[in-house]
Structures are given as structure tokens and as C-alpha cells.
Amino acid sequence: MLKIGITGGIGVGKTIISRMFALLGVPIYDSDARAKWVMRHDEGLQQELIDAYGVEAFTGEGELNRTFLAKIVFNNPQRLQQLNALVHPHVRNDFFKWVAMHADKPYVIKEAALMYESEAWKQIDKMIAVFAPLDVRIKRLLHRDKHRTEADISAIIERQLSEEEKMARADHVIFNDDQQLVIPQVLALHDHFLSLTSE
């Protein structure tokens, strides 16, 4: 079974691309959603987070206090790196358990914004980078995330690995730039991955 990674910066449309693959019957591992789940359900990780950030890391109901954590790590690269270093190994373990559950499939997809930064790409067979120009990404994000300003979005983008580097390191690129049709690109890659698994 092939493990395919999908990555790209905020606003490029990773989730839309993943949904297209899902419609073709491909299991999708949403790293962001699973990370939130793992932080709520993995007692070992919960204790590590409390040790690092204090009991305020969780609410009285046992939910992750995302607002509290965001304030700590948002403008502090060292604290953000610390948070990622705690969370990513647990998410990696969760991913491999999930992969085992889909062993009957020709290939699965892991969607993650920080695929290279977290070194998760090392557990992946083929990488897809989704690309959209900066102006298109900002326009999409201002429409999607009403609470964010253009300055907020630019700050997030600046902290992420450049799109040029992601594309250079990827095996395949999907252009989601509002100029090229996306569905034919997805279908071509789907056929390609199926051909690799049938060799």
C-alpha cells in the first residue's frame, strides 16, 4: 500500500483536493483534525502538555484550551517548536495505527500543512504539493476566516515553509490557482498511484 502525502501552505486548498480523492474512495488522514483528537484522548500527551504549559492547557471539562495555547505559541517560535515536538510523535503513532486499519486499500493519503517541518514526509512514499499564488490564498482566507485580518494571514504564511521549497521537494504538484482545472489533475494522479500499486 502506498502512503501519499498532501501538503501546502494555508489557503492553497489542501482540504478541497483531499475531498476529491475521498470521492474516489481513497481514505484520508486529516493531520490537523487527528492532532486535536489525540490531544483530547491521549493521556500521556495530555500530561506532557500540562507539564509544559500548566493545568490551564485544558479546560475544566477536559477539553484542550486552544485559546490559551495559541496565546503562548503564536508569536514565540521556540514555544511553537516545543508544542510541535510534543504533539507530532503521538500523531505519527496514530497515523500508523490508522494506516493498518486501511491495509486493504491500494493507497491512502495523509494531509498535513507541516509535512516537511514535522519530518512526517519521511513516513510517506510520494508527496503532493498543492500550489496557489499568494494573492489568491489571501483572498480565499479573508473570505473563509472572517476573524482574520490580512496582516494575521501574512504572519501565518511567513512562518510556513515557502511554496517554492515545498514544490521543489514534492514528487507531484497540483495547481489550484483558479486558472487550471483541478479535477483532471486529481484524476491523473489517482490513475498514476493505482498503476504504481498494480505493478
Automatic annotation (TrEMBL):
Location(s), subcellular: Cytoplasm
Key word tRNA-binding present: no
Keyword Kinase: yes
Pathway the protein takes part in: Cofactor biosynthesis; coenzyme A biosynthesis; CoA from (R)-pantothenate: step 5/5
One function term, GO molecular function aspect: dephospho-CoA kinase activity
Catalytic activity, as annotated: 3'-dephospho-CoA + ATP = ADP + CoA + H(+)
Top EC category: transferase
Chain sites annotated for binding ATP: 11-16
EC number(s) given by UniProt: 2.7.1.24
Keyword terms of this UniProt record: ATP-binding, Coenzyme A biosynthesis, Cytoplasm, Kinase, Nucleotide-binding, Transferase
InterPro entries documented for this protein: Depp_CoAkinase, P-loop_NTPase
UniProt superkingdom: Bacteria
Stated role: Catalyzes the phosphorylation of the 3'-hydroxyl group of dephosphocoenzyme A to form coenzyme A.
Record family assignment: Belongs to the CoaE family.
Protein name: Dephospho-CoA kinase
